[in-house]
């Protein structure tokens, strides 16, 4: 037998041992896991195996956990759970059934965008059950889309009546149509403050000045009777576009071009005039609490703490706004109607405002009361129609009116209903009889 030098034998033995080890163990930074998927790493070692393993860049992968969520830090990309989204820049994420990862990622299905490594609103699915929402009201109705905006702390207010009048043109030289010279009315009784801003919308061709607005102010609402172009913006009833009514009214609301049927600039829109009014009132009447309704940028309105109340033409307008803008309350007085377009899309579009925040009051002597009943039902407003009279006493059984949000006053016609005290107005605006 040929003799080999000792150094060659030792080298061969080391090589054989190394090859054997590689055949029986995980490969660092890229091996396969028994029961998991490949976990590759750049500059890190492979983590524990898990169902549907994780890929890491710049760190180690984590172990899976049911219902886990992602931490924060400068680690590796987390693996999304079912229905979740991948976090960027966060530390190792674990697998979560139905969960979502953090680190600036978006939440689960229907959720809002997260910031700072936390999920937005707990992964809300947009069903109205959000941490920021007002306490639950009457049960039922359309669920509503999205969540209420977070509220800042309420300011200190005095306890007295506040009343101001000013024109749209006095606040904005670009306001050149839509009753721009009429006196808009801002009122509140802060001794009863409800912390709800109500814009009041008049009948066709009308300017500010509904009696309902003054009554609402006496009940503690912040009321702004806004001037806008309510004159002749009715869609041609020969048009078959199901969006024509909604597009017309929403262009009047925010001044965004949606239809050739109207041309409304931002300065002539309901929303912008409301913003300018709140900014003005915050300056001249800080003890009135008007500025609380402005958004953080001071150039928007926190509409989830607002309400739209309209009569006739304004009743339909308020209802349409509530479909596309999440409101705290919407009330249609002698409405809502479809403006000769019974297949209007706004009647069946899923609403931003929950149906249990919506109310309709109309009279049986109004020739369109049957349409109002159908429209309220189509929009997901709560309850079947209940009848009463203008002189009837308050119901004796709670909830009043069987809990319905659709009230038919049988001895009345086309009117605004709540310019003075009535049990049905107390039910709608003050929560009486709950």
Biggest beta sheet summary? 9 strands, mixed
What level of helicity do the residues show?
10-25%
- Rounded to the nearest angstrom, the distance between the terminal CA atoms is 105 Å
Strand arrangement across the biggest beta sheet: 1-2-4-3-5-6-7-9-8
Shape: globular
Question: How many DSSP E strands?
Answer: 9
What does the model show?
With 434 residues, this protein is of the alpha/beta class. It is built from eight helices and nine strands. It has helices at 6-23, 168-171, 211-218, 244-254, 270-284, 313-324, 369-378, 423-430, and strands at residues 161-167, 183-189, 197-201, 222-225, 306-311, 329-333, 358-363, 386-388, 406-409. The protein has a nine-stranded mixed sheet, with helices on both faces. Strand 5 (306-311), helix 6 and strand 6 form a beta-alpha-beta unit. Helix 4 packs across helix 6. The longest helix has 18 residues, at 6-23. The model is unreliable at 1-128 (pLDDT under 50).
């Amino acid at each position: 037998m040929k003799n080999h030098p000792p150094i060659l034998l030792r080298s061969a033995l080391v090589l054989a041992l190394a090859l054997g080890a590689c055949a029986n163990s995980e490969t660092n930074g890229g091996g396969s896991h028994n029961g998991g998927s490949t976990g590759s790493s750049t500059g890190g070692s492979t983590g524990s195996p898990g169902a549907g393993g994780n890929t890491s860049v710049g760190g180690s992968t984590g172990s899976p956990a049911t219902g886990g969520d992602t931490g924060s830090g400068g680690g590796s990309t987390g693996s999304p759970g079912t229905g979740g989204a991948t976090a960027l820049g966060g530390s190792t994420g674990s697998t979560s059934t139905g969960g979502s990862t953090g680190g600036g990622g978006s939440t689960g299905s229907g959720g809002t965008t997260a910031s700072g490594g936390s999920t937005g609103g707990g992964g809300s699915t947009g069903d109205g059950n959000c941490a920021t929402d007002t306490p639950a009201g009457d049960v039922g109705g359309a669920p509503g889309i999205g969540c209420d905006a977070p509220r800042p702390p309420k300011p200190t207010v005095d306890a007295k009546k506040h009343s101001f009048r000013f024109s749209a043109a006095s606040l904005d030289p670009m306001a050149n149509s839509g009753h721009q010279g009429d006196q808009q009315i801002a009122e509140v009784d802060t001794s009863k403050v409800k912390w709800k801003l109500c814009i009041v919308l008049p009948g066709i061709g009308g300017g500010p000045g509904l009696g309902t607005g003054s009554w609402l102010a006496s009940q503690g609402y912040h009321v702004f009777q806004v001037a806008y172009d309510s004159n002749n913006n009715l869609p041609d009833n020969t048009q078959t576009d199901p969006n024509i009514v909604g597009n017309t009214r929403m262009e009047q609301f925010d001044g965004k071009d949606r239809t050739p049927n109207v041309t409304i600039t931002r300065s002539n829109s309901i929303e912008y005039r409301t913003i300018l009014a709140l900014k003005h009132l915050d300056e001249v009447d800080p003890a009135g609490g008007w500025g609380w309704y402005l958004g953080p940028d001071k150039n928007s309105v926190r509409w989830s703490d607002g309400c739209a109340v309209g009569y006739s033409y304004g009743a339909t307008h308020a209802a349409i706004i509530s479909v596309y803008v999440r409101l705290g309350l919407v009330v249609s007085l002698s409405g809502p109607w479809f403006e000769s377009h019974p297949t209007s899309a706004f009647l069946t579009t899923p609403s931003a405002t929950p149906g249990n925040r919506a109310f309709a009051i109309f009279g049986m002597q109004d020739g369109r009361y049957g349409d109002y009943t159908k429209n309220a039902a189509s929009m997901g407003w709560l309850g079947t129609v209940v009848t009463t009279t203008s002189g009837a006493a308050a119901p004796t059984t709670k909830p009043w009116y069987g809990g319905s949000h659709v009230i038919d006053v049988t001895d009345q016609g086309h009117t605004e209903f709540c310019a003075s005290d009535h049990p049905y107005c107390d039910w709608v605006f003050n929560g009486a009889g709950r």
